[in-house]
Amino acid sequence: MKTYLWSMLGLFFVGSTIRSDDVTPVPQAHAHNDYAHARPLIDALDHGFGSVEADIFLVGNDLLVGHSRLELKKDRTLEKLYLDPLLERVRQHGGKVYKDGPPLVLLIDFKSTGEKTYARLREVLTRYREMLGHLEAGIWKAGAVTVVISGDRPQKTIADDAERMVGIDGRPGDLESTVASDLMPMISESWGSLFRWRGEGPMPTGEKEKLRQFVDKAHQRGSIVRFWATPEKESLWDELRSAKVDLINTDDLPRLRSYLLSPK
User: Fold this and answer.
1) Could you read off the pLDDT of 84-111 as tens digits, one per residue?
2) Contact at 8 Å (CB) between 253 and 43?
3) What's the domain count of the chain?
4) Can you tell me whether residue 58 is helix, strand or coil?
5) pLDDT (tens digit, 9 = 90+) per residue, 30-44?
6) How far are the Cα atoms of 46, 260, 262 from residue 6, in angstroms, in the given order?
7) What CATH number is attached to the domain comprising 45?
8) Using only C-alpha atoms, what is the Rg of the chain?
9) For the chain, where are the alpha helices, taking DSSP H only?
10) Residue 40's domain spans which residues?
11) Residues 154 and 114: beta-carbon distance below 8 Å
12) What CA–CA distance (Å, rounded) separates 244 from 254?
């Protein structure tokens, strides 16, 4: 595993403009429920995270960010918290989120009805197409940001969209699928749905082999792997890292960053 040097000189705000010095990205780091942090998106970028997760509800014509309807606020829209600052940053960084890094994954979890939510999201994303991976004449063009849809995923509608700007978050049943990797760039599952080991003592040999087979199959089809609801234990992170799991889930941004930047 490549070891990254962490180098950050600061992040400043001038009006609505984000000015960031070089931040060495940590591609394996996934900010679970990113919107729960003090500065949604910005805290994750400040730590070099390669992936952020936002739950959204369609309320009227607004895409509001929050884990439940009780948390929603009119001013906490997907555009304001994520899309606008990302577009500004990409323009400032010459077409990338991180100057020397890979595309950022923006995982959008639909908490409201998938078909209606996707229809509105598609309208919104057209304003940000310049920074997004998207289909162009039937060919997927990589962008600074890769949007992946999870939750209530309207899979057929997304697959049939000739100008789509998103991919679908797959499930274990999709490991054998022949769906193109740009349409299903990620395979995810709850850790507890597949594994009983919670990071205490050695990982059982059978579960360790099951994990490696899962990751190998996903990689063979060109998809990255993510598990949610993983215990926040370094012993478990060690196994994920060893098995080449692409995204490691956390709510503790500094701790995972420090872990991933340490030599292994």
Assistant:
1) 999 999 999 999 999 888 999 999 999 9
2) yes
3) 1
4) strand
5) 999 999 999 999 999
6) 11, 10, 10
7) 3.20.20.190
8) 18
9) 42-46, 78, 84-92, 114-125, 155-159, 191-194, 205-220, 234-242, 253-261
10) 11-259
11) yes
12) 21
